[in-house]
Structure formats: C-alpha cells, structure tokens
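Q: I'm building a small set of examples for a reading group on sequence design. Run inverse folding on the following structure and report the sequence directly after it, with nothing in between.
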C-alpha cells in the first residue's frame, strides 16, 4: 500500500539560511513528508543544527522541539537571540549563557588564542575528540565553537555555534556579535596559552627570567599562575591593540 505524502511549509530567518541551499534561502518553501516526526528532526534533516535555533512558530504559535508536525503546517524558524530576552515567547534551551564560556574544536586553535587575548574563557586542546567536547560543554556550561556542523546536531548539545568565516579577525568579530560580547571585553586578562587569568607581578620576582632588554625597558608585568608565562608590553603589543580596537569598533 502506497503511503500518503503530506506537505508542510518552512521559512528560515537571518543566519539560519547559511545552512540551506540557495533555492531555499529567505523564502517560504514546501517540504514533503510521509511519516510524522518532531520539528527538531525535520529542521536538522534540512541541515540546520538545533543549537542555532531559538524560536519556532507553527501557524503563528510558539512550539518546542518535540512538536510533531502535521499536514499543512506553516513553520517559521528563527536564530538564537543571545542579546535579547525572549523568555516570555519561547526558549528552546534552558537559558542563554550570560556568563559566556566556550570550548573550541580542534580546527579553531587560533581563534581560541585570539578570544583569550580579548578576555574570554575558551577551553581548547588539539586532541579533544567530539565526545570530550560535548561532555565538557555540558558539565562546564560552555558553548561549543566549531567548524563541524555534525557535532551541533547531537541531541545532548544545548549551546553551540558554527563558525562561518575563515579569516581570524572575521571569526573573532563573528563570535563577539553572535554572543553579544562587545561590552565585556577585557583585553590581556588571560593567558593565551593555557586560558588562566593573569596576575600582576613585581618585576624583581621574575627578573632572572626576563631578557636583559625587557628588564631594562619594562616595568609592568603579568604572570600566568598555572603555566608561569610572563607578559609585558612587547613589540607586538601595539599590533594587538590595533586588532582589539578594530573589534571594539564593530
């Protein structure tokens, strides 16, 4: 016996269109289905990770990921609103991460270092596997930053973001805009190597660790209490300041 085909209609908004083929971008399009499924499963089958979605309207009414689609449904799908509180409308995850912390996948080591440079807590190791990333994201309440859409489609994942850009400055700006971080930038407050918060240290305590030119020309020093790396305003400081200014001038 031939199964009956049914139709539903989708419209995806803003950056969610990054995951769709051109013919489905920013337009209402028809989707054919046979067996009923949850709206979450259908959205992800179209290529959009659920972590990128924050609001779903079906026939004008807000619904959750577990809603079972019905013939003729008109479905509007909206991206995450980190900078807006839409709790009274519908949140599809517990709450936004207002104390933002991140974990980056193995492809984003440079991004992790740059985000640390502007003060953000980013966990990164070049040997993390996907299971470790997901588990650390959940236990430490970290949003996943990734170039792999597949990891964001895992049902356990609650917060995550697929990095679109390839150039490092654009990636940093992308994350800051997406998570509304501009007003909480604290440049040079973290160790770019191990992510720990830096502490101010008296030069005399580290004098034997400093190059002679640095010891004679610099007075202010900061130290990582974990990996023991020392920081000062070296030759790259001005270049880093210019980068940070460009980020702040979004």
């Amino acid at each position: 016996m031939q199964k009956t085909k049914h139709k539903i209609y989708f419209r995806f908004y803003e950056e969610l269109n990054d995951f769709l083929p051109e013919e489905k971008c920013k337009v209402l399009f028809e989707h054919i289905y046979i067996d009923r499924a949850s709206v979450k499963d259908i959205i992800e089958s179209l290529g959009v990770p659920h972590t990128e979605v924050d609001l779903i309207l079906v026939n004008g009414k807000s619904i959750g990921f577990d809603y079972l689609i019905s013939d003729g449904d008109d479905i509007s799908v909206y991206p995450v609103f980190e900078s807006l509180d839409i709790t009274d409308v519908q949140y599809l995850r517990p709450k936004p991460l207002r104390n933002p912390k991140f974990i980056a996948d193995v492809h984003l080591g440079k991004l992790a270092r740059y985000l640390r440079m502007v003060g953000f807590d980013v966990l990164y190791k070049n040997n993390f596997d996907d299971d470790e990333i997901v588990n650390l994201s959940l236990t430490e309440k970290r949003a996943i930053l990734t170039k792999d859409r597949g990891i964001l489609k895992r049902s356990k994942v609650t917060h995550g973001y697929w990095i679109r850009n390839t150039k490092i400055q654009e990636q940093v700006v992308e994350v800051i805009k997406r998570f509304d971080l501009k007003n909480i930038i604290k440049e040079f407050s973290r160790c770019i190597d191990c992510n720990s918060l830096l502490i101010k240290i008296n030069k005399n305590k580290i004098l034997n660790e400093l190059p002679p030119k640095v010891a004679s020309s610099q007075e202010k020093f900061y130290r990582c209490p974990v990996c023991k790396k020392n920081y000062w305003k070296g030759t790259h400081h001005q270049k880093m300041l210019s980068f940070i200014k460009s980020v702040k001038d979004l």
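The chain has two domains: 6-79, 98-250.
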